[in-house]
UniProtKB/TrEMBL annotation:
GO MF annotations, alphabetized: structural constituent of ribosome
Protein name, entry field: 60S ribosomal protein L4-B
Organism of provenance: Gigaspora margarita
Family in the record: Belongs to the universal ribosomal protein uL4 family.
Transmembrane segments: none
Length: 553
């Protein structure tokens, strides 16, 4: 938006002719930044503030003391003495008549604000660049409709004017006096206390005249309303952009105008008078984006425009984070990511299952043979299944049939905290649905002690099955269900022999038919009988004769 042309005209003092042309200074090409100008102007304007404060003694020039508590009045200090209405009145506090103010002002307040030197120079360069754009000058309110050229440069003869009449004639000759008339007509009485403080009137701003050397120019122009003068070496942002608003009407002398390149430098060299200072540059030199896009250089490398698609009005906006279809339309690769996530989840699940299987096999491994491994798994699973199925509660007693000395002192209490000692008269068979424990008694006929009793758990069953597999004598163990004496009716207990093959066969039957009340164990072994109690619970499975050892076939 900066003004840019190679030459600028220099007009005579009479304003009727162009006496010469000079090169356009580079400072007028600087970026125009209203934000920086406003910030710097606000900070610089605070440098003119005069400290003020109230008297440090104000509000405390009385003898007052609090009456304390217990007199049904406020604890604020009260004026001492008597004989006057002032005695007993509150004092000192900011809520009291004649008291001090809250937080009395002090003269050591932070009145001024330091501004970076480079920021001040940037703001000055922006204000100068804005003064060369007629639109900004007109927008600020200056009357420049009849000015021949902006910025307005007049020959060095303007610096030698001595009389105000000659200065007024010069302003009329260059058609700048209408701005002075505007200022004169705007003079109004100030509202407020400023009338009493040497600021009785207020008016608009007129032209700013910038000169290089004072040969009488200051005396000639200083009494014209609204006209201000400044040396080119002392350019002030408060005058170039009054109120922080860009676009001051500036009249230059030829000497001052030609000195700008040395003062601010150019884009090819640094300033001669300001150490290591270079003009700020625009990030985008051409802000006309439409012109850039429509230029031949850009259009020849772009693809031709496609069909125009107009969005349907009043369409429902759907959340792509919740709506999968909308997500895939926005990001087709989302489908690949979802598929990969599902595959990873399946792999992780398969890995966890595999790890659990390995751990379970390691904890239930009893023998190298596959039959014993399957037997262990089935026995463990179905013992728990029978325990909970239809609230049936079973009690198992295992006898050592051959009175083996090497098993008489067998210590099977592998889990002492879960061991339960079963007594004969304990009513284990009941309708209680909370009974969830198998009770197993292993003892020797000679020492019928129940101290070795333990509760069935996965670990204990594994130990028993390992003994079944390692010791051949254990194949003759007898297996029976606990029988209530009231249901026996004096009949002799009949045993069912426990062998490795029979246990496996029994486990297979449990897997096929979990309802033991209907299970027929004589289908492949020998005729058996399932005895139930009054509540329909199975209390015994007995055989008429000793069953044979079932072969693998």
């Amino acid at each position: 938006m900066s003004a840019e042309r190679p030459q600028i005209s220099v007009y005579s003092e009479t304003g009727d002719s162009c006496i010469s042309t000079i090169e356009f200074p580079a400072v007028f090409k600087a970026p125009i930044r209203p934000d920086i100008v406003g910030f710097v102007h606000k900070n610089i304007a605070k440098s003119n503030r005069q400290p003020y404060a109230v008297s440090t003694k104000a509000g405390h020039q009385t003898s007052a003391e609090s009456w304390g508590t217990g007199r049904a009045v406020a604890r604020i200090p009260r004026v001492s003495g008597g004989g006057t209405h002032r005695a007993g009145q509150g004092a000192f506090g900011n809520m009291c008549r004649g008291g001090r103010m809250f937080a009395p002002t002090k003269i050591w307040r932070k009145w001024h604000i330091k501004t970076n030197l480079n920021q001040k120079r940037f703001a000055t360069a922006s204000a100068l660049a804005a003064s060369a754009i007629p639109a900004l000058v007109l927008a600020r309110g200056h009357r420049i409709e009849e000015i021949q050229e902006m910025p307005l440069v007049i020959g060095n003869g303007i610096e030698s004017l001595m009389k105000t009449k000659a200065a007024v004639d010069l302003l009329k000759a260059v058609n700048a006096y209408s701005d002075v008339v505007k200022v004169s007509n705007s003079r109004k009485l100030r509202a407020g206390k400023g009338k009493l403080r040497n600021r009785r009137h207020r008016q608009r701003r007129g032209p700013l005249i910038v000169y290089n050397e004072d040969h009488g120019i200051v005396r000639a122009f200083r009494n014209i309303p609204g006209v201000e003068l400044v040396n080119v070496n002392n350019l002030n942002l408060l005058q170039l952009a009054p109120g922080g608003h860009l676009g001051r009407f500036v009249i230059w002398s030829q000497g001052a105008f030609s000195l700008l390149d040395s003062l601010f430098g150019t884009y090819k060299k640094a300033s001669d008078l300001k150490k290591d200072y270079r003009l700020p540059q625009n990030i985008v030199f051409n802000s006309d984006v439409t012109r850039l896009i429509n230029s031949n250089e850009i259009q020849q490398v772009l693809r031709p425009a496609g069909e125009k698609h107009q969005k349907r009005p009043y369409t429902q906006k759907k959340n792509p984070l919740r709506n999968n279809g909308v997500k895939i339309r926005l990001n087709p690769y989302a489908r690949v990511l979802q598929r990969a996530e599902i595959i990873d989840a399946e792999k992780r699940k398969a890995g966890k299952l595999k790890k659990k299987r390995v751990q379970f096999k390691a904890s239930t491994k009893v023998a190298p043979s596959e039959d014993m491994q399957s037997l262990t798994t089935k026995f463990t699973r179905h013992s728990q299944c029978i325990n909970y199925y239809q609230n049936y509660i079973y009690v198992t007693i295992i006898y050592d049939h051959f009175q083996l000395n090497n098993h008489s002192n067998l210590d099977i209490s592998f889990e002492p905290e879960r061991t339960i000692i079963k007594e004969t008269n304990s009513p284990i068979l009941s309708n209680s649905t909370n009974q969830k424990t198998f009770i197993t008694e292993i003892y020797h006929p000679k020492t019928s002690s129940t101290n070795n009793s333990f509760s069935i758990s996965n670990n204990n069953v594994v130990i028993l099955l390992r003994k079944l597999d390692e010791d051949s004598e254990w194949s003759s163990l007898k297996f029976k269900y606990y029988l209530n004496e009231d249901e026996m009716n004096g009949e002799e207990e009949e045993k069912w022999f426990l062998t490795n093959e029979n246990v496996r066969k029994c486990s297979e039957l449990v897997e096929r038919q979990s309802n033991w009340s209907k299970a027929s164990l004589s289908s492949e072994i020998v005729s058996t009988q399932a005895i139930k109690d009054k509540d329909g619970l199975i209390v015994q499975i007995k055989s008429k004769q000793q069953p044979p050892i079932i072969s693998e076939s």
